[in-house]
Amino acid sequence: MRRIALLAGTLGALTAGSALHLLGGATAGDVVWAAGTVAALVPALWWVVSALRAGRLGVDAIAVLALGGALAVGEYLAGAVIGVMLAGGRVLEDYALRRARRDLTALYERAPREARRYEEGVPCRIAADEVRRGDRLLVPSGEMVPVDGVVESEGALLDESALSGESLPVEHRKGEGVPSGVVNAGPPFDMRATASAADSAYTGLVRLARETEAGSAPIVRLADRFAAWFVPATLLPAAGAWLISGDAVRAVAVLVVATPCPLLLAAPAAIASGLSRTARQGVVVKGGGALETLGRARTLVLDKTGTLTEGRPQVVDVLAAPGGDPEEVLRLAAAVDQMSSHVLAAAIVRAARTRGLALPAPEDVSEVPGTGASALVRGRRVRVGKAPGSRSSPWEAAQRARAALDGAMTVWVSLDDQVTGVVLLRDAVRGDAGRTLRRMRSAGIDRVVMLTGDRAEVAESVAAVLGVDRVLAEQTPANKVEGVRDEARRATTMMVGDGINDAPALAAADLGVAMGARGTAASVQMADVVLTADRIDRLADAMDVARRTRRIALQSAGAGMALSLAAMAAAAAGALPPTAGAVLQEVIDVAVILNALRALRAARGTRLPLDRPTFDLLRRFEREHAELRPPLELIREVADRLRPDVPGDALADLWRVHAFLTGDLLPHEHDEESRLYPAMAHLLGGPEATVTMSRAHAEIDRLVRRLGRHLDLAADRGPRADQLDDLRACLYGLYAVLTLHFAQEEEAYFSLVSAPSVSNAAD
């Protein structure tokens, strides 16, 4: 309001003085103009003093000299115009920053404030801050999820658009984690809180957004760098013009056109615009310094689970120690893990609930990052996580060997410090991970490092798929910190993680990035950048924005200063009087601020632009893939069960596989060939981009026809013994080709699908 009042006062003085001059009151008009000049000079002096107190030579000093010089040489009109220009520039700066911060402000203004907690079976309205870990909550239709938790009803349909930009509601099944800050778009559902409001991930986002806003307004580091040479570079030609011509007015004219509003406005407006642009894409960046570091990072260090992988591991087997019961092993593990927010814990709890196991309530729960959790369950100490102790029984060694062969993760379950079983889990690589890493290499990343606490065999299998340069596996939180510091000593390093055990490593990096959609509050709090959407490709989008924002900031400031320098030369030669120079400088100011606001607009960057029809096609086939993937396992299972002694059972299984392939899968593949692939060929620049995918379709067709011929030969008797080897080869071949083909399509095509990817013209 003060700046608006200053603008109104200076503009009023300029208008009133001009009116008095037109009416013949030149002296009175000069007095009014001088008053307007003084009104601008006083706050300008305060800005300079404040900068000096902070140890900076503020470029506002030139504006003060121009205002004082105009008063000294009697150029009252020029002084009044400079006053309006200075006040207008500050108001314009406020507008630009408010416009740029709008998305950040919206993020924390919608923070959850209320919850409905069950008390004696009745949901009661309470403040969100009163929710405690383990509370059972009701989330009515249309209301916001108040804290992080897991779904206890059969399912939940959530609108996550405010965080991720995803326009379609996302379905969460029973036992799956739900983030705070999203809206219930379906019927009411129950959830169990896994964190308090203060420890929920959304609170970390709110805190980061507030810090970002506080750090955005005074971002003038770029201007301060210029100020060190620009102030003396202005004073020298002003003094030279005065000495050579003997006319002090020329010196004032030089100072007037040198008033550095392009520096004061362009850098903060562009950077704040970039911060807003990243927020709109589901990435919150803590201030201009973090945005600049994001744009110049050269080494990328990534956690594996939940970052490079889906973060939704599936339990593939539960093995009990000799004499034990697998069901009891899973029950004990889930009882402890139901209080944990770790992705492996959520998978174990989900598996137990899917099997209908009743979970006892744990007591004295504790969790050690990177090691696991423990609790008292029915009076006995249960530990879930890494195997306790250094000794290994033959049974444990056998399970480790099996997990290594299967590329599975192991979660050991101990009862009173004795290993009672192990849970094997597998986590798929994210479909967008490969494309994202390639995009980030195009954006300037030279080195990619995977840093994980998981076993080397599992980590290396993921790294081989993604082309990672270095793998550091079986790392404790302390080892992760040292690994990040080692990389940071070589180049500017960015670390991406999502768990509690990643928080120290995020702090050790030049730039910490947290997967906030499913990450812990600890990782969010330590991060400089938070991905509010559960998509790592948003990091590549943010890196594009960071590089473009810095380019626009330099471009705006550089162009503005070049124009000012040209005007200074004209003023020093006497070709530009102070009043005309003030008007010209105002035009320059408006031009640079408008150019800086271009950072708000979408641009292509390293992302391929999609038109709406292609986007819709990709979305459709992506959903069909999700539906077709689970039945693929039937093909391998039937191949495993083929035996000569039960031909009737084998025949029924084979017909089930054949019905799935011909009724569901082949129509999908043929539709892709006729509709999706032509669109992708147009997008990617020619049919050669899809020829390998078409070749896979041909091989799938061939194998399905071969299976059909085997069924014709088997007739009603079932497959003959001499058919079994070829049938197994056919089925295993189908399973291998389909699994690879699905993975290729998901990485090459479906990874393009995300909310910001629909084409906008780049500038």
Automatic annotation (TrEMBL):
Q: How would you describe this protein's topology in the membrane?
A: Multi-pass membrane protein
Q: Which Gene3D superfamilies match?
A: Calcium-transporting ATPase, cytoplasmic domain N (3.40.1110.10), Calcium-transporting ATPase, cytoplasmic transduction domain A (2.70.150.10), HAD superfamily/HAD-like (3.40.50.1000), nmb1532 protein domain like (1.20.120.520)
Q: Which domain of life is it from?
A: Bacteria
- Pfam families attached to this UniProt entry: E1-E2_ATPase, Hemerythrin, Hydrolase
Enumerate the spans annotated as P-type ATPase A domain.
111-209
Where does this protein chiefly localize? membrane
| Record key words, sorted | ATP-binding, Cell membrane, Membrane, Metal-binding, Nucleotide-binding, Translocase, Transmembrane, Transmembrane helix
Transmembrane: present as a keyword of the record? yes
List localization entries. Cell membrane
Q: Does the keyword Cell membrane apply?
A: yes
Q: Which residues cross the membrane?
A: 62-92
Q: Pinpoint the Hemerythrin-like domain residues.
A: 618-752
Q: Which PANTHER family match?
A: CADMIUM/ZINC-TRANSPORTING ATPASE HMA2-RELATED, CADMIUM_ZINC-TRANSPORTING ATPASE HMA4-RELATED
Q: Which family does it belong to?
A: Belongs to the cation transport ATPase (P-type) (TC 3.A.3) family. Type IB subfamily.
Q: What is this protein called in UniProt?
A: ATPase P
Q: Which organism is it from?
A: Microbispora corallina
